[in-house]
Amino acid sequence: MSDVSPLVDGDGLTAGLSRIAAGAGKAEARAALLAHLKTRLKDGRAEAERRLLAGTRGSGRHCARALSDLQDGIIRLLYEVAVGQVYPAENPSNAERMAVVAVGGYGRGMLAPGSDIDLLFLLPYKQTPWGESVVEFILYMLWDLGLKVGHATRSVDECIRLARTDMTIRTAILEARFLWGEEALFRDLSRRFDGEVVKGTAAEFAAAKLAERDDRHKRQGASRYVVEPNVKEGKGGLRDLHTLFWIAKYVYRLGPADAKARDELAAAGVFSRDELALFHRAEDFLWAVRCHLHFLTGKAEERLSFDVQRDMAMRLGYTAHPGLRDVERFMKHYFLVAKDVGDLTRIFCAALEEQHVKAAPRLNRFFAALPGRRKKFSGSKDFVVEHDRINIASDAVFENDPVNLIRIFHHADRYNLAFHPDAMKRVTRSLKLIDAKLRENPEANRLFLELVASKNQPEIVLRRMNEAGVLGRFIPDFGRIVAMMQFNMYHHYTVDEHLIRSIGILAEIERGELGGEHPLANEIIPGIQDRVVLYVALFLHDIAKGRPEDHSIAGAKVARKLCPRLGLSPAQTETVAWLIEHHLLMSMTAQSRDLGDRKTILDFAAVVQSLERLKLLLILTVADIKAVGPGVWNGWKGQLLRTLYYETEPLLSGGHSQVSRDRRVAAAKTELDRALAEGGWSEAERRAYVERHYSAYWVRVDLARKIAHANLVRDAERTGKTLATAVATRTFEAVTEITVLAPDHPRLLSVMAGACTAAGCNIVDAQIFTTTDGLALDTIAITREFDLDEDELRRATKVSGLIEDALSGTVQLPEIIARRAKPRARLKPFSVETRILVDNSWSNAYTVIEASGIDRPGLLYDLTRSLSDLNLNIASAHIATFGERAVDVFYVTDLMGQRIKRASREASIRRRLEEVFAGEMPADKPVAKAKAG
């Protein structure tokens, strides 16, 4: 029975239905019955939602049970009407008996608003016409009520036979609950199931369910800290709790899935009373979230996607705190509960091992483990190795020496040992021993520092340390960001998971495992003077997220306080603090500044100041970006970082980079002249060509591209074209370049951006050059889409053809773009502040405009179109997207080639670009048509 009051008056409903059925013909009675039940179901669900929104303690479980009770009442009434009035059996035979049984989730007596209704129509023998009619009547009524029903009609013998071979059916029967009909049939099924199926198969069932859980976790992302978790199927979700209870019920022969059965887990010694209370709290919270999610979306939605998270936070009563929005506080609570579920799983698995129903894992299957079944550690009497896993020698190990709470993780990493569940259970129950005294203990801090900077598997052990609760208690500042999510589309994981993943990536780089993907980082990391500062800086770089002040500055303050405690010297501490304060500098400079502009390199070098810092910052930046989430890192970002590094390195090492601009231009001309001569160009052709470019072209374009440009220009002239395009793939950088030769026009880049929008391409960079004879030579880099070069070239050729068609006037871009440029549905939950910066200090030759705000299809087209309308020439564009936030940077001059210096002009630029982000665009102006051939 439910421990909450029913949603409807069962006796009144029964009486009302009887009157309806007695006072009309069969068809009329059925229609009246259906209408009556629809009203009752609607009213009952509305009352369930009202109680849920009231938010009393236990409201999640109460809502699920009340909805189950409501459904029970409806099914029982339908059965009574079916067998008593619609298909009465005057002299029923033994075969004309039936039990209606709830199975699956419904069998637990817990239903979410959109859950399926899983029913088993249990028969003594094979099906009869009477039984078929009764089942059909009940099912059609339930379907007409708009319910999703899963059903099976089987005899007791069939159930037992199928349960022996099918683990899904076995699990369904394990949770079977009698609803109505012949209860003796149900008792017979339960007795035979326990004796003929369950008995002696506990190890088989536990192994199957745990393997099923692991497969499910892989499908859901293999982490409980993905920022759009699945409440039901994800790691740390309701299904994990269900799995625990299935196994517990099977192994410990527990009763029905109610509070009494959970109490039996404590009586069996599986959970302590506190852990059992944690089980109740986790289950209630997850049920509340799931029920709210179903009510909010009006369907069986199980994923906490971005577009519902804010509404869910409001329904559950969360409010904003300094540094954290309401939605972020809600999601942090969710992930903390998911972590609690993980704790309960480990404790439960420890109990299973004591009964020998669970196999032993290894810390890392790629590393060789220590041999032997049980052995002591050399020099330590507190720990033992059991089946290649570290365990405690006695229950008093941590009480006798709290440093062992750190030492156990240090040993696990050093000897590549998995953790014995008994040890982890004792760790979790000993967290109160981690106090101020232990945090200041030199030995504990030495062990922790060695673990963070380990050359083995620090990511795996730090994650276990975090899941056990030790990491957040030993480093309280880390505890503040445990389970903290950032409400944006850029970050895929919670802050703590991101930090731990970044350590793992750094360890892979140091081991040389990512040389093909990160050649520069792989090359320079062996020469790092102090690898410890790099690991500590990476471990702490986002530790101040969620605070009102800038997290980089606040994080540097944390480092200056924490590093001496960990045993770092003043010089090491200052380096760590500097890296944290500037951990975004290299990424933002590489992605959002013109690396061909000398001022960019000089300004960056002035901040970095030393070659060692440059090396540390490059490696930290690579690991940071790569740990953000799948697909965030790409070869283009790697190339930008390498370019910035190579341009800055000579400045910091006293190299040749101070050569004057005139000498660099002259050297570049000579280099190209020599290459063209080898390519068969005459001296007259070479002399004429090199005079067509301004000095900016010579210092910003590498030799290979200069040669390609020269051949494109010569081929176009020989065929009489004023419009020509060329495409080239850059496989390692994961971009494809499209170069356009056309008569110079302020709207040229805008047309190219529009064509890419129409083709569904993402532009990441653009270089714009004008020749002395009035031609434009513009190159854009678009994100690569296909793995094979021939496929990518085919796609890029179609895009370049669309650009040519738009420039020649054969297609009208605005119409195509209007169809494509509808706001993305996934962006609706986000609000991004629009910021327009107009700055003359970032370049000596150009005014730099940085436009950031909410991203959308067609944004770059609208921005470049507006800059053209403002009579600005764009020299280069650098496009970066961070989830829902776009950061587009343009190096511009006025039509006279001068920087923008009047305040009123800057104000008009800011105002116009703000209107673009607000969606206010004037009608398109015509573009001068170019002659294609």
How much helix, percentage-wise, in residues? 55-70%
Number of helical segments with 4 or more residues: 40
* Class based on secondary structure composition and strand pairing: alpha+beta
CATH superfamily of the largest domain: ACT domain
- Highest-level CATH class of the largest domain: Alpha Beta
**How far is it from the N-terminal to the C-terminal residue, by CA?**
83 Å
Q: In total, how many beta strands?
A: 16
List keywords for this structure.
alpha+beta, 8-stranded antiparallel beta sheet, EC 2.7.7.59, Beta Polymerase, domain 2, 40 helices, Four Helix Bundle (Hemerythrin (Met), subunit A), about 950 residues, 4-stranded mixed beta sheet
Structure characterization notes:
- With 933 residues, this protein is α+β, with helices and mostly antiparallel strands.
- It has four domains: 10-199, Beta Polymerase, domain 2 (2-Layer Sandwich); 211-354, Up-down Bundle (Four Helix Bundle (Hemerythrin (Met), subunit A)), CATH 1.20.120.330; 475-658, no CATH class; 722-917, 2-Layer Sandwich (Alpha-Beta Plaits).
- The chain has 40 helices and 16 strands.
- The strands form three sheets. Strands 9-10-12-11-15-16-14-13 form an eight-stranded antiparallel sheet. The protein has a four-stranded mixed sheet with strand order 3-2-1-4, sandwiched between helices.
